Every structure is written in C-alpha cells, then in structure tokens.
Amino acid sequence: FNVMLGNAGVGFSRMFSPRLRAGIAAKAIFQKLDTVAYNTFGFDLGFILKTGVQKLSLAGSLQNLGFSVKANATYPNPAYDSSLPTGPGNEPSIELKEGAPLPLTARIGFGYQLASGVAALDIAIPIDNKVKVSAGLEWWYQRSSPLGFAVRLGYKYQGAPDYNDLGTNLAGLA
C-alpha cells in the first residue's frame, strides 16, 4: 500500500495603505492512495485591516477557491470475459475519473494588541461542515530579551458537544 500527499504553493501580498494589506496564494495539491492519484489547483485570498479602533485588527480570507479534486486510476475489470468481444460492458479495465470540490472556507478574525501580548478571535465557515470558533491569548514575558518567552492559551468551539468524543476543546497551551 502506497500513500503520498503533497502541496506546493506560491504567494504574493501587498500593502495597499498603512491600514490595509492583502494577498493571494496559488497552490497545487497532489495525493496518491495506493494506485489512485488525485490532483488539483486552488487559490487563497486574504486581507488584514487595521481598524479605526486603536489596537484592533480585522482579517478575512477565502480558502480553497479553485478546481475540483480529480482522481485518475485504471483497475482490472473483474467482470471482463475474454471469450466475448470487447466493448461497452465488457472492457478489460475500468477507468476511474471522479471529481469533488475543494473544501471552500471563509474565515474572519479579530486581533487586539494588549500591553504584553495579543487576544484573538477566529471564525471559520466551511461550506461542507459546521462553523468553528476559536479564541486565544498570547502573553509575552521580556519579549525583546534573549530569555523572553510567550505563554499561549486557546479554545475552540465546533458546535454542539459530542459526549462520545473524548477530545477536548482546549486548543493549546504553550
């Protein structure tokens, strides 16, 4: 059994004003599961805006704009009968050509600069799943010092709780 997954991309961003930055990224996605190869191309768009409210930033993005994921594979046809003429319904192999859209996701986020860190809120709205909300804090101790460090704490909300899931909504503590 052979598995391979890869992604290659290139991006460009620009400062349009002291308050607005935006960018685009193009990516090629490829995956192979056993004998089936999948590939596609996609784009991400994003922006960061320093709002008029002091120390508050707004960001947004659209992820996975692009083409459907294509699968290409050829399998031996178990129903093929070599004693019959080859034709529709009696081919020696079956060609698989499937397509599925990339999981388009819109995101919006807010960041607020604190005296020694940052507070953030992120809302992800995937086209094929439930809305996910994440929040976090980062606090720096002696940021400019070589001995400085950061403490981070995050929380994620992914809809109604599943009591059969033993996971936690604690997103991280570093």
Characterization of the model:
This protein is mostly beta strands and 174 residues long. The protein contains no helices and 11 strands. The chain has strands spanning 3-15, 20-33, 36-50, 56-66, 69-76, 93-100, 105-114, 117-126, 132-141, 149-157, 170-173. Strands 1, 2, 3, 4, 5, 6, 7, 8, 9, 10 and 11 form an 11-stranded antiparallel beta sheet that branches. The radius of gyration is 24 Å and the shape is elongated. The two termini are 37 Å apart.
Show the helix and strand layout.
Blueprint: E1 3-15, E2 20-33, E3 36-50, E4 56-66, E5 69-76, E6 93-100, E7 105-114, E8 117-126, E9 132-141, E10 149-157, E11 170-173
Antiparallel strand pairs: 1-2, 2-3, 3-4, 3-5, 4-7, 5-6, 7-8, 8-9, 9-10, 10-11
Query: Strand tally, please?
Result: 11
Put simply, the count of helices is 0
* SSE order: EEEEEEEEEEE
SS strand fraction: over 45%
Amino-to-carboxy terminus distance? 37 Å
Largest sheet features: 11 strands, antiparallel
Globular, elongated, flat, extended or rod-shaped: what is the shape? elongated
